[in-house]
């Protein structure tokens, strides 16, 4: 249900709800059909009151009731199939965790959150952000290991193949170029007092818009300096994560077409992942992931 | 007696980083071929009955195929419909009756020329894929040179 911009957990919940809806519609249709076999007067005499009332109500269904239910049922089945099975995202998350372990095998001693894998999905329109309606081609985070995708915390990257120069981030560049893009030895821009030159260099190397880097810096500086803001948004400072020192993105392909991008980020300056990506274990896990992504 | 098809084992491929390196980047970023565009394994098949020699590549992903034929019809490439990856090369050996004992070398040369032709005439975005296939099959100490062994046995 990428058209609606739903997150995987929302897709999962909607898929389960639609499944229940489908079963309920089938049950109601069957009940209407069964009620037609009973004589209402006899039912009122023989059956308990509640059941008799149900039979009478169901028998009163207009002639178009069952066809209408059938139509609704067809729509529900179509929507459920479009979303994909609710279990698919669980499997994708599980595969992503295995993939992360296989890729960062040499960094196994480090805390998990030092090295992350994020899966982005390409979407033509960005319905969830009205200020971006005018432009097409976006990459949305749909799964991450370790952790999960939280709305607003992972940037949406622009990736329009008709405008490759406008592609943002390593994710966007990997998508439009259809290449593995690796950037190593990045500057540490975690603090609030990073020089503009450092930010500019980081922006040039990672294709991240300079404006968003500066806005982030300013926001954190204001929260730190202002007592009221610190009281209200101090949790943001505590949750602030160290900036990535290494980024690698490569396009994810499903049935020969570009589906999205996988981005690996690390706090190490040069974890040498390019070689690991060629290992048979990683290739097997990528093949499995591609098969799973055909379902969603 | 029906001649038997000679098939090599799947030969695992692990290209070096130099072979995967793509165009240079002015900002110091390293660009490589996508893992999906790098073959995982390759094998050669020779059918003496029909005189066809075939080289097959295995990738992470699969997709519908299209066939590209050389002008003389002796060589055909099976390419991915969307990605233009080289999935297979097929050579009709009967089109080259002049081949002698050195037919493995002759076929290797044909393959090299065909892949070079596709790399120079095709879409820029797919050029690196053809060049990698050429490198893997026909360069000196090529990791996949073993696919030509069925041609050497007479």
Can you characterise this structure?
The complex is a heterodimer of chains A (296) and B (154). Chain A has 296 residues and is of the alpha+beta class. Chain A has 2 domains: 8-82; 85-186 and 244-293, Beta-Lactamase (2-Layer Sandwich). In chain A, 51% of the residues lie in helices and 15% in strands. Chain A contains 11 helices and 6 strands. Chain A has helices at 8-35, 40-46, 49-59, 65-83, 86-103, 169-177, 196-206, 210-225, 227-239, 273-276, 280-293, and strands at residues 115-123, 138-145, 157-158, 179-183, 246-254, 257-266. Chain A has a 6-stranded antiparallel β-sheet with strand order 3-2-1-6-5-4. The longest helix of chain A has 28 residues, at 8-35. The mean pLDDT of chain B is 81. The two termini of chain B are 16 Å apart. In chain B, 27% of the residues lie in helices and 26% in strands. Chain B is an alpha+beta fold. Chain A binds chain B through residues 173-174, 177-184, 204-205, 250-257, 274-275, 277-278, 280, 282-283, 286-287, 290, and chain B through 12, 14-15, 17, 20, 22, 27-38, 40, 60-64, 80-83, 85, 125.
